[in-house]
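User: Please fill in residues for this 292-position structure.
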């Protein structure tokens, strides 16, 4: 895992923006305007009336590979800052990223036959609808409830969005006919890769907000109902992908819940978690014998 860089509110904005090429986009989506001069992160956040430490969590998620906020960072964070960023990102995806990708794909397939053109546009349209479906989920279920006392939120499987982009990338790289515009194909691949990386960070931020929200809604170290379900699956010998498929949630969400289970129980091994599940009447010990 990459070592976490020291991002502080006292940093000059210009110095922070030099840390990673993704950060100017983060600032722009948050509504900050270029021309920062000598301003610090704390200066611009204070003017925008947002918590600088919470904003820096977003910056670290986007710029530091493998970074995930610690429990201590999450406990101190103002989730409304993260929710605001996620909401503003929707406009970026629809008004900028998807339009750029659509334009590039359109130019790429101009020399190709009508059948391929129709297939590409259907693929792109399906992806756009999948993304809109996820945005609707966030706006209807995630944003209104984060920070409230009652969790009231179900897990959402994000894999469809990410897998569709992977399929589109594979199609362009491996199955595009030679008469397609190759320069536009390169540009389209660059846009797909950038969009996939961005959406991955977006999903991580959403899960971060939900993770803190769920933690705040649980008393002490009691496991949530979802955590108990995952614990039982772990005790039965299921791996993360199997658990995700079984419960219709993302692998990222499974991993997040497993970290919470370990933190709450203090138990790190599958054998130990199996005994814990048995002692707490979550399963019959015989049910841990999987059929191979």
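Assistant: Residues filled in for all 292 positions:
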């Amino acid at each position: 895992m990459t070592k976490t860089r020291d991002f502080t509110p006292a940093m000059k904005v210009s110095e922070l923006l030099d840390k990673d090429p993704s950060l100017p986009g983060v600032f722009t989506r948050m509504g900050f305007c270029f021309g920062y001069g000598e301003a610090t992160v704390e200066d611009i956040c204070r003017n925008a009336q947002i918590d600088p430490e919470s904003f820096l969590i977003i910056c670290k998620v986007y710029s530091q590979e493998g970074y995930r906020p610690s429990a201590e960072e999450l406990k101190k964070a103002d989730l409304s800052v993260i929710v605001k960023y996620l909401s503003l990102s929707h406009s970026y995806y629809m008004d900028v990223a998807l339009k750029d990708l659509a334009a590039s794909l359109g130019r790429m397939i101009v020399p190709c036959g009508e059948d391929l053109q129709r297939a590409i546009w259907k693929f792109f349209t399906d992806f756009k609808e999948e993304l809109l479906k996820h945005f609707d989920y966030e706006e209807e279920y995630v944003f209104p409830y984060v920070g409230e006392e009652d969790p009231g939120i179900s897990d959402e499987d994000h894999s469809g969005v990410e897998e569709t982009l992977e399929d589109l990338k594979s199609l362009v790289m491996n199955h595009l006919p030679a008469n397609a515009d190759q320069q536009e194909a390169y540009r389209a691949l660059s846009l797909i890769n950038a969009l996939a990386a961005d959406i991955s960070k977006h999903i991580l931020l959403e899960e971060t907000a939900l993770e803190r929200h769920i933690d705040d809604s649980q008393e002490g170290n009691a496991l949530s109902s979802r955590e108990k379900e995952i614990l039982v699956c772990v005790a039965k010998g299921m791996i993360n992908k199997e658990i995700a498929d079984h419960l219709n949630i993302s692998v990222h969400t499974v991993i997040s819940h497993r970290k919470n289970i370990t933190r709450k129980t203090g138990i790190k091994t599958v054998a130990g978690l199996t005994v814990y599940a048995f002692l707490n009447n979550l399963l019959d010990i015989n049910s841990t014998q999987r059929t191979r």
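For context: The two ends are 34 Å apart (CA to CA).
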